[in-house]
Amino acid sequence: SLLEWVHSFNHIHENIRWADLSDGKELWTILQDIDGNYFRGSLPEPEVGPQGDWLRKWQNLKHVDRQISTYYRDVCNGQDGIAHGHVPDLKAVAAESSVRDLERLIMIVIRASMAGPASNQAMAQRLMGLGREKAMVIAQALRNMEEPAYADSEPTSRDASEYQSEPESVGQHKANGTKEGGVTYEDPLLEREEQLLQAQSTIEKLQASHVAAQRQLEQLRQDRERLQESFDAYRAEIDSKGGKHGGDDEFRKLQRQAESDRAYIDELEGHMQSSRSTVESYERQIDRFKAEYEVTQKLRDDIQMLQADNEELHQKLRANENLKKKIQSLQEQEKANVALREELRAANDRLSELERLKQVQAGLEKEIIEKKGLIRNQEYQITELTTTRKHAEYDAKVLAQKLAAARERHDRDHEALEELRLKMQEMKA
């Protein structure tokens, strides 16, 4: 399914293999298709290929992973946390073309694309284009990325009928996931679409069951009419023959059978009424979901416009900062050039000294380049350490909030479950 999702992009060659994705270039192109305004520029190693040096490929993959992380956190306002067992090993991807870790990395890309305000609708349609079954598999994998894998609790039957509604089963699964893991999937549109599909499927099942019950009820009514006719004919025959003892037994037997048939018909009518009420309830629920979806989509559009304006302002600020840095660098470079000119004028009559100074200058420039490289590496390490610390603090805060929310949801789910049990007992009674 994941490789089919990759193939769904126009620029991806149809014969691409897992190993061809290990250099990060195809994934970077996909990210640019998802949000070209954010994922700009090129990779650190744009010339490396799938068979190239794994260290250079690793630099590309790290760049892709960092950009996705900041995009999901800053643009999508998502909680940048992935469940244990779903974090890709970028070294394994670069060195060994690990399919398992490539799948995890692609799932991170899909998660960001589904949460992105500029790409949510297009990516949802792209997923559904793979087929409903595959789309549901990927959606479940997205939830598993943010929910620890726990054993599901036993499902609670809704009533004594032979089927259980699918949305209720999904709701119970989410309640269990909230109770045990404390995390739910953060894309409400995808959840609404899934609930709509499941509710529609349940309505179709209920309608089919309702039609079958009507046919069975009609058949029983016809049988009852035939039995009533036979009963009337037999009673007339008994009356005409004087009402023998054996006839009384047969009469009582037919009477008991008729009463049993009436009770069974009444029971079927009750089930049919319950089924009709359930269908109407799900139809109202679908209408409510559609209204909420339209409101949510309008809010997404408004947020997307605000984020575009905000991004434009940030880009202007970054351009101003870069311009200031360039001016400062040019001023410092001009000062250094003035000093060098003075030295060159003082050494104009001493050619040998000039050559020595040139050699010294070349050595200094080389040392400066090396020092600059060392400084950049140290600054990069400091930035990574700072980012890691901020992520850890942020994750701790998020986990605390999730724990509190999970406790509240647990209490609400427990109360709701008790109410459902009482209703079931009343219905059975």
From TrEMBL:
It is found in: Cytoplasm. Residues 147-183 are annotated as: Disordered. The keyword Coiled coil applies. SUPFAM superfamilies: Hook domain (SSF116907). The keyword Repressor does not apply. It comes from the Eukaryota. GO terms for biological process: cytoplasmic microtubule organization; cytoskeleton-dependent intracellular transport. GO terms for molecular function: dynein light intermediate chain binding; microtubule binding. Pfam families: HOOK_N (PF19047). This is HOOK N-terminal domain-containing protein. It comes from Baudoinia panamericana (strain UAMH 10762).
